[in-house]
Specification:
The protein is of the alpha+beta class. The chain contains 21 helices and 22 strands. The strands form five sheets. Strands 1, 2, 6, 7, 8, 9 and 20 form a seven-stranded mixed β-sheet that branches. Helix 1 runs parallel beside helix 9, helix 3 crosses helix 4 and helix 15 crosses helix 16. The chain starts with a strand and ends with a helix.
């Protein structure tokens, strides 16, 4: 009934979709197995993509030839570039999506992907032979052979849903949990644990009073996520969101349900996300705050369903309902469904190599929430990398590992495999030590050439990069060679409170002033504006960033260059840490467990200090 596949991907969430697309587009015969073909690429929680650091990840996925950026651009109902008031390293795109259009576009793109088959069934186990994965076993009893398997099970592994004192099995509301895989993996020697996440109630938008809320409009400039020519909505067509707040009265009502809360009563063992806590957790941990912000977000173009971002809860339905109706604008709110918490199995990611392949079983890869992460974006980028490396393994080609200096994706995977996580891992810009280099605007320049070499990014993507780089260099030359006289610029400088110039200066030097943007400068200098009119807004912005932040960019490059020496010092797989009497027992245990490939990786393992690294260098003859 089934042919032998190169790669089988288990699960069709964000990680699974990217993994399947990557492996298939690179030429592997791929099968995507999902428990429900109608929920491919389901946005299980909020209908949005991107945000702080997450937006950078989506742009990196797009630059690598993944689909998340394109699908987001095709389904967005609102776009905002967050952190515009800060430096470009902090700018983060975020889009509100139409939930149904998002899933439909993903399925449409997957169905148009060559080499990709689909099958609806639950995977209950793996075929393993001589510590090498050989395929999967489905709930209907089918054995499907494959050379590599990628597990992207999301919250479905032995998932339990909690609402107040009620609990029932499920991977998502109204969808059954998956069983069998955890038990088999544990029997093979893997370590597993439990995590928790949650979701807020959904309400009928027709029952809300939006006049009592603050309007949150989208941007006038729709940058989007994809570096391709994907068509985006116009600014005037965007849907708006709203902001409202909880109050002491809301908090008091919520507290009446604490004795029935699964979280406070000890019925939930899993640790929840620190940076996206439930509303009951917020008022418990931040007792001094008398209100919390809520984002009122439409679920799509043609639905009245509203997502109440910030009100994630597993309290009893009656408490949720009563508290929600005390929020300004929600006095007459009607619930579509209550919020709930979900507890599920995950596998601490220190059990993986830097390709996301497991250390115990050859050609078996984990991606997404099975690794302890939270968020669509974090899952999607792991899926992309697992799919790429599964294909490369099958074809016996060198693996792809992105460095911390190359991508947020590299930071995320490096953090997971070296430090592990005991709570759902979320990406932040602060986790990246080279964030000036890893901006959202230059993800294509950083990653598309690499993806093109792999055969994932297509020729048209590469040609766009060549043209963009050429044009950016041209703009920088114009700024460097254009001289500006005092009488041409002093009126503008005076109008913005900047000191006048007394002699001719290059436009480039004037642009270096902190309160001047290139758009304003060219607007004040008609001859400069004329020189730049043939270039795109994206190219002009990129050139301006490179000019204004050149010193910071060069400093980070110098640091990367110094650190690369340790990254290039390989540690043999057979290295015996037990023989190093100078190392403490904790260092020996962690080094033996994680088996770092390089000294750089060893230095980032939690609990390994600089003196441990120096000892390693001595014993390796360095």
């Amino acid at each position: 009934m089934f042919p032998e596949y190169d790669v089988i991907v288990v699960g069709a969430g964000h990680a699974g979709c990217e993994a399947a697309a990557a492996a298939a587009n690179m030429g592997s015969k791929t099968l995507l197995v999902t428990m429900n073909m109608q929920t491919i690429a389901q946005m299980s929680c909020n209908p949005a993509m991107g945000g702080i650091a997450k937006g950078q990840i989506v742009r990196e996925i797009d630059a690598m030839g993944g689909y998340s950026g394109i699908v987001t651009d095709l389904s967005m109902i609102q776009f905002r570039m967050l952190n515009r008031s800060k430096g470009p390293a902090m700018w983060s795109p975020r889009a509100q999506s139409d939930r149904m259009v998002f899933a439909a576009k993903w399925r449409e793109m997957l169905e148009q992907t060559p080499n990709l088959d689909f099958y609806q069934d639950m995977v209950k186990g793996l075929l393993v032979k001589d510590k090498r994965v050989a395929g999967v076993i489905t709930g209907l009893g089918h054995e499907i052979k494959a050379k590599a398997v990628v597990l992207t099970n999301g919250t479905f592994l032995n998932g339990i849903i909690h609402i107040g004192e009620k609990q029932f099995g499920g991977g998502r509301v109204a969808e059954k949990a998956a069983s069998g895989i955890t038990e088999q993996l544990v029997s093979l020697g893997f370590e597993s644990d439990r995590l928790k996440t949650g979701t807020p109630p959904r309400v009928d938008g027709r029952s809300l009073d939006y006049i009592k809320m603050e309007v949150q409009e989208g941007d006038e400039d729709i940058v989007g996520f994809s570096f391709s020519d994907t068509k985006k909505i116009s600014a005037k067509d965007q849907r708006c969101c709203w902001i409202t707040y909880t109050s002491p009265e809301v908090h008091e009502i919520l507290k009446t349900g604490f004795d029935r809360s699964p979280m406070f009563a000890g019925r939930i063992d899993g640790v929840g996300p620190r940076y996206c806590p439930s509303i009951e957790d917020k008022i418990n941990r931040f007792a001094d705050r008398d209100r919390h912000q809520l984002f009122v977000e439409p679920e799509g173009w043609n639905t009245v369903e509203i997502y109440v971002n910030g009100f994630s809860t597993s309290l009893p339905e009656d408490v949720q309902y009563k508290a929600l109706r005390t929020v300004p604008g929600f006095e007459n709110a009607r619930l579509f469904r209550p919020g709930y918490a979900i507890e599920y199995d995950y596998f601490p990611p220190t059990q993986l190599t830097n390709t996301l392949e497991t250390k115990l079983i050859k050609n078996l890869f984990f991606a997404g929430q099975i690794n302890g992460t939270t968020g669509y974006e974090e899952a999607a980028c792991q899926g992309l990398m697992a799919g790429i490396n599964a294909h490369l393994n099958v074809k016996e080609q060198d693996a792809l590992v992105l460095k911390r200096s190359e991508a947020y994706i590299g930071v995320l995977i490096d953090d997971l495999i070296n430090k592990g996580t005991e709570e759902p891992y979320r990406m932040f810009t602060s986790r990246a030590e080279y964030r000036t280099l890893l901006r959202q605007d230059n993800a294509d320049a950083r990653l598309t050439p690499l993806s093109y070499q792999l055969g994932l990014a297509k020729e048209d993507r590469m040609e766009r990069i060549r043209q963009k780089n050429e044009n950016v260099a041209g703009i920088k030359d114009i700024l460097k060679n254009t001289m500006v006289t005092p009488d041409q610029i002093n009126g503008f400088l005076e109008s913005i409170g900047s000191s006048k110039i007394t002699e001719k200066q290059k436009a480039e030097k004037i642009l270096l002033r902190p309160n001047i943007e290139l758009a304003d400068l060219s607007g004040a200098l008609p001859f400069l504006n004329e020189s730049l009119k043939s270039y795109s807004k994206e190219e002009i912005e990129q050139a301006a960033i490179q000019v204004k932040y050149d010193t910071y960019i060069e400093k980070e490059r110098e640091i990367v260059s110094r650190m690369s020496e340790m990254e290039n010092l390989s540690i043999p797989d057979s290295f015996d840490y037990g023989k190093l009497s100078s190392l403490g027992n904790e260092a020996k245990e962690k080094l033996n467990r994680i088996r770092p490939k390089t000294l750089g990786q060893a230095s980032r393992i939690s609990g390994i200090n600089p003196s441990d690294v120096q000892i390693l260098m001595v014993y390796m003859g360095r």
